[in-house]
Amino acid sequence: MNWIFLDFGSYRFKALKASIEGNQVELESSLSFPCHPEFFEGLDFPTSSAWAAMSVQLHENNWLSEEQSAVISQLPGSYLETRYLEFPFNSPKKIDRVLEMELESQIPFEIEKLIEKHHLLKGPGVRESASALVHVISYQRELIRKYEKELKAFQLSVPAFSADTLSLPSLRLGLEAPPVFAFLYFGHRKTHWVLMQQSGEVLAQRVFWWGGELLIRALAAGLQISNEEAEAVLKSTSCLDRSAETSDEDLVRRELLETQVVQFANLFRQSLKAHLQTGLDIPKPLPIFVMGGLSRLAGLQSLITTKLEGDFELQLQDYPIENLTSICRNLDSLPELDSTYGLLAQALSQTRSQKGRVFHFSESGFQLQQNIRRIKGQGLSLLRKVAVILIAPVAYLIFSLSMDRLEQRQLETSVRGFLQESRLDLDLEASISDIINQLRRMNRTRVQMQSFLEEDELSPLMILTGLSRAIPSRVKVDMNEFQVTETQVNLDLDTDGSSSHLTIMSSIQSLYPNASSSELRACDRFPNCQNFKVQFPRQGSGS
After folding, report:
1. What CATH class has 460-537?
2. How confident is the model at residue 374 (pLDDT cuts 50, 70, 90)?
3. CA 204 to chain centre
4. Residue 126: how many CA atoms within 13 Å on its side-chain side?
5. Residue 84: count of CB within 10 angstroms of its CB
6. DSSP 3-state assignment of 447?
7. Fold of 176-319
8. Average pLDDT over every residue of 244-253
9. Which pLDDT score is estimated for 542?
10. Half-sphere exposure of 332 (CA within 13 A, CB side)
11. Main-chain phi, psi angles of 53, to 5 degrees
């Protein structure tokens, strides 16, 4: 089967043309072209203009005019919601029955607006416990619908697709994988982290908002050069390698780069500690296969290992991409292999041995499952009606009603007695359904309060969420840059005039009174475009 795989990277857009037969992938050609800030919205979600630009490139290269190919892309992993739930039983059927209710109290979204996937964690990398640990991954249905709509422009039937982070485990086909290992994929703006078992079962995953872009900006600001010059310096430097000879200029570069790498190491340490708290067991040593263009930066892997060696024993090593040559024909013919890992992961996830091991998301498939359940429910209801009509209707009805009422009274008596002994603040005179709703509200309140207590109000995500809520939706504002350091937050914004600028600054200063703005400058990203920069100390809301 012929495939076209799309990768909407934050630095360049890429596409790969391949054919797949069983477990063999034959790579035919690839293309790559620069992207622009207006191609993204939210957390790097591709806009319609991004899809249009990709379509133009595919047509110009005659990829869509030849034999029909399935066109597929992966959802941005930055929108994945992950939860770890514990249950006092290991029965998958029992877990399926109560999972939705438990998940409803854990996530900040309505359960109907999500498509969730879950699996029971056990074996290597999971701490032994009498409780069952369930890994739950969910994605917003509205975003999945947008992806399906764009993919339908290329074909009638949309193939099943996953998230970019969740497809990375298929790259284990190029390894003699240990029982527990991990992938660390450095990108331009984001870094993908996946912890998994030898079988490909995902134990944990995360997207870090850290990548080569931050290093380029640090060099540009510290050396007072352009971003293009800083990028060239980053590609040619080996100043992070302490075993290499260094000049005074290299020492300056090293200090600038190390500051950014240490910030990532701290985030990485926090994430690993969070894995331990959820019930995972990180082995010593933990093999981590590193990929992406940034992984070639001399000294980067050893610096990360050194910064974490007091808490974790990590073995960072380059991913042996040459091992994929037996599975992916013509691999050597692809240019810029360091930037094609995401595309190769997509291709390998469509092979026969991997297709069933990757979590897929589909709004149309979700609707089909809902319809099948509804039809089954209607069919069972019809069978009951036929049974009532054909088999002693009166006797059956009387017996059923009497048994139902007896069981209901016994159950209500037991439930009310238990709740009375528990001394919960409940209205026990209410109906059972009302009592259940009271318990749900109490549980939801408990989880929310716990979440509020545990949430780091200074995290970049909380700062970004607060700004998004404070700025009115009617105001035109585009965010070009969102940079958070240990002490300061910097924003690069576009708006459509001075009135909108005043509204935006008023909204930001309602949260951060010390926020200051630069003067408006004309820009050409949209009509009446005005650019300005905002900065304020990272010391919490109202400081």
Report:
1. alpha beta
2. low
3. 11
4. 22
5. 18
6. helix
7. Nucleotidyltransferase; domain 5 (3.30.420)
8. 82
9. 44
10. 4
11. -65, -40
